[in-house]
Amino acid sequence: MSVQQEVQHEVTGESTDGWQPSSSKLVRLYSHPWTQILLISFICFCLPGMYNALTGLGGSGQIDSSVAANANVALLSATAGTALFIVGPIFSRVGPRICFLIGGWTYALYSGSLLYFNHHHKGAFVIASGGILGVGASFLWIVQGAIMTTYVAESQKGRAIAVFWIIFNFGGGIGAFVSFGLNFHSKDGTVTDSTYIALMVIMAFGWLLGVFLCSPSRIRLAQLHKAVETEKHSVKGIIKMAASTLLKWRVACMIPLFFSANVFYSYQQNNVNGLTFNIRTRSLNSALYWLAQMLGGLLIGLLLDMPWLDRSHRARLGWVFLFVTGMAIWGGGLAFENWHEDRMQQGHKQDIDYTEGSLSTGPIFLYIFYGAYDALWQGFSYWLIGTESNSTARAAVLVGAYKTFQATGGAMAWRVNAVGTSSRTQFAMDWGLCIGSLVISLPAVWTVSKHTAVEQEAGYTPPPTESKAVTHEEA
Description:
Blueprint: H1 3-12, H2 25-30, H3 33-46, H4 48-55, H5 65-103, H6 106-120, H7 123-150, H8 157-182, H9 193-208, H10 222-229, H11 235-246, H12 249-259, H13 265-273, H14 279-303, H15 311-345, H16 357-388, H17 392-418, H18 423-446, H19 454-458, H20 464-474
Helix pairs in contact: 3-7, 3-8, 3-9, 4-8, 4-9, 5-7, 5-17, 6-7, 6-9, 7-17, 8-14, 8-16, 11-17, 12-17, 12-18, 13-17, 14-16, 15-16, 15-18, 16-17
């Protein structure tokens, strides 16, 4: 590829070497990187977006939050056990569409199990459905992560994360607003049947959209085509590729970051929201939490795509921003925790309504900031994964590792919540894990390269003269 072609590729992200576009405008639109980013974003709007609306109610809309907490333990345990060693290799063989169709239907099953629980009060089905959903979620999130981190040019990965996070969390926000309307006059501690039925319909529609997902070979992107050429699709080749991708010291430094990505959900949703507010205010707070994630995702995406900084400096800026905002938000959480303990000792539980401004304003805004910080954290984690590889198969392995450790940390936290551990202990654990994992990840952040070369993808180190030529072309 000539210098002029390289420059065109860097600007447009489209292939100029060995890739022939289709004569059909519709096919070209279908295989455009941003079409697929928007599609997977809307699919996640319908599936995990609606699931997030449900769990954000505290106890998935039930008075007894222990059933939902144990279902989450089953879900996250199943995800941790399948994402890396089972789903990742399957993705490398069958691609994104088949992987998604295998797992996407499980979201509707889980919502249906909660509808069943509303009438029969048997938690075993809910917990079993949570475990099945854990396997399905592995398939969905590896497909989503691989598409989001490899289907656009390196200079646009932050924007891809931002777009995904806005659309995906809009699902959580809309779903929670619907629940807020359905339960506005409710005096019960559980949500209505119509809430679960509406979510099931949306989830089923999102699953059907998966038939339109596109394979990497059809995407109009030079860096992706070059990276795909270095992939090995035999069983031995997949194992070797996965091992070489994971067994890097930089990935090891990221693992605590992955582990801590969901540890705060159980405390924030069941303790901060679930134990403090009545059902309609919990629904409202859930909507605000996911809308705040939209803003957080937009902010971190724009920050990590700043055109006047190279990629290595953007990585360091993102880390500093995450550390400073984390200390500020968790510091506000400490003030809430002191206030919350006093109220619980006085017998106040699930009693604050959003109309009680003097009581509700501070805790509601804290919950909003918690939601924004989750988006900052996960957006930064995905962006770091994107700096490691432009290969869809390699990204799937890294996303599998991310989801495995994320789910392990989340399962641990939900189990800690389910056994009745004090709110203060959970708060301290979450704050310590978040800031500690940021510190451990610093060496990996500090050594992010300016560009991921094809030689790196193939595990090949060119001789000095060849390195010089590559550097000249990139310049």
